[in-house]
Structures are given as C-alpha cells and as structure tokens.
Predict the structure.
Amino acid sequence: MARRRKARVQVAEVRVHQSPTAMHELPVTQSLLEIALRHAKQADAKRITDLYIVMGELSTMVDDSIQFYWDLIAEGTIAQGATLHFRRVPAELQCIACFTKYSPKEKELVCPNCGSVGAKIIAGEEFSLEAIDVE
Amino acid sequence: MPQHIPVVENIFNANDRLAQVNRARIEAAGVFSINILASPGAGKTSLIEKTLPLLKGKLRVAAIDGDIATSIDSDRVVAAGAGAAVQINTGGTCHLDAVMLNGALEQLDLTQFDLLIVENVGNLICPANFKLGTHKTVLVASIPEGDDKPYKYPGTYRGVDALVINKIDLLPYVDFRMDYFTQGVQALNPGVVIFPMSCRTGEGIDAWIEWLFGQVHR
C-alpha cells in the first residue's frame, strides 16, 4: 500500500505547436487529410477531387471551420482544391422506458410518447469520412 | 481516371488508437485513472485539492494538469499532496488529446502510484471528443453555471461516468432548479452517478471519496 513520499514537483512543459486560435476542428481536419491521403495512395491516385464526410447533428463539429482549416492544410498535397461534401445525419433517440424512437427538440429531452426522461442515442453522433473521389 | 473510393473511417481513429496505447500503459503499471472535465472555474482543481488529503496514506496519486498556460494548477495539486504532477501547456488548444497525454505519461514513473488524475482544459465542448485512454471520465458542474448546461452541452454530459455538482452551498443565492438540471442529465446519461458537493464546506465529499476508492480497488 501507500508509503509516504516527499512531494516532488515535476513540472514539464509539453508544448504543442499550434496557432493560439486553434479549436478542435484543426486536429480533426488533419486527421481527415491523413485518412484521405492514405486511401488515395493505396489506389495509386494522382489527385483527390472530392471528400464525402458524414456529420451527425450531435457531433460538435462546424463544417465552415473544417473548410477553413482544410484550405490551409491541404495546400501542397494531392488533395489541394478538393471539394468537401458534408452529409448531416439528424439525431435520433430511443426512449429507455417505452422504446419509442424520436428526434430531440431543443431544451426538451423527454419522450413524446410516455414522458420519460432517459434515452439511448441511435443516430447523430457520426463523424467519419465516407468516401473520396480520386483521379 | 476518376474513381470513387469507399472509406468509412471514423475521423477520430488516430486519436482513439493512441488512447488505447495510453490505457495499456496505465494498466500495465496497475494504476486507475480518471479524466476530469469542467468549464473554467467550476472547481476541477478545488475538487482535487479537497480529495488528495483524504486519500493520504491510502492511495499514491499522480496528477496531469492541462491548461492553455501557466503551472498554477500543478503547483496547487502538489501542494495538496500529489506525489508528482505534470503540467501540460497546450499553447492555445482547447482540450487535451491522446498525443498530449502520451507525452505527459513519459514523464511519470507510473509504477509509483495507485491513482492518476488528469485535469483537462476548462471547456465543455472539445474535450468530450478526444479520448485520452483514462478509465473513467468525471464532469464537475457547478451551481453558478446555471441549470441549463446539460441541455446546452449534451456531448459532454452524455459521455461522462460520474458527475460532481459543486458549490451546492450557493443554492440559496442562485436561481438553480435542481430538478430541471438532473432531468437533463438523466435524459442524456441515464443512471450516471451524481455527487452534489461543496468543495468549500466539504459537504458531500465523503460519497465521492467512497466512489473513488471503490473504483481504484475494483
């Protein structure tokens, strides 16, 4: 079990070199680019022209922000100038009491059928790259 | 020649894979780990400060603190009794991710500890998207933030394993409908364990400590 230890400060700066305004869409866009480039390479493609992204209504991603970072980081790669297509998936919940499926309304998280709170998320959290078009 | 390539890959895959590496590393050392999320000022560091003296002599605790800047938080948790603390300064990024935690883990001899407490960057949005590899995620809410937060930040509220409601000593002074708040929580996250608490007065902290011991010794 525990033995007494003298307190020790081990302060280390693990600096991450990102712009001071970087929000979560930057690392996400980098990941998107990596996935697309990997699949394009496997197909021996010369250019990526389109990316098809699935984005659930409950994911906290902002497509404008992804587009903004995309234009910056795709530059100089075979994906430069590719068009980003976003397919939105609406949120769907299923009541844990009566199993009714419903779409949540803002500020209203009760089942429209039985009035219970508590639901399982069936759809709306997706955030994936569905397909790419290459040449 | 134009070609359509089906991909179907979760965009968080790279982070999630590294989170699994982190988890394996933490488990290999026999350590239990929690990731604490909250908005700025909800009381993440206060909760750790109040918790550590109650674990003294029973659990050896290491802490990893994420902040945009400064080592204020890691200094505080070391002063409160953490055996070691690593400060991650994200330099502007609004969350910790698995890469940052991986770097911080390098700086700890995990075998010397029983419990690892990771304090995420104060933010109710982005941290929910980035798995770190910790065993449990704890959200610290607080009364002055308002009772609508589960409704406004569903992504964070639905993904946590335990919820501390801090600053309950302020309930007489703030318009906070506990029923409305807990209804939102239960809707998003049925059955989540909830600890109403005041880090200032110490009210409610015993139940939290008991839960923590239960988790570590599972």
Observations:
- Residues 1-5, 11-22 of chain A have pLDDT under 50 and may be disordered.
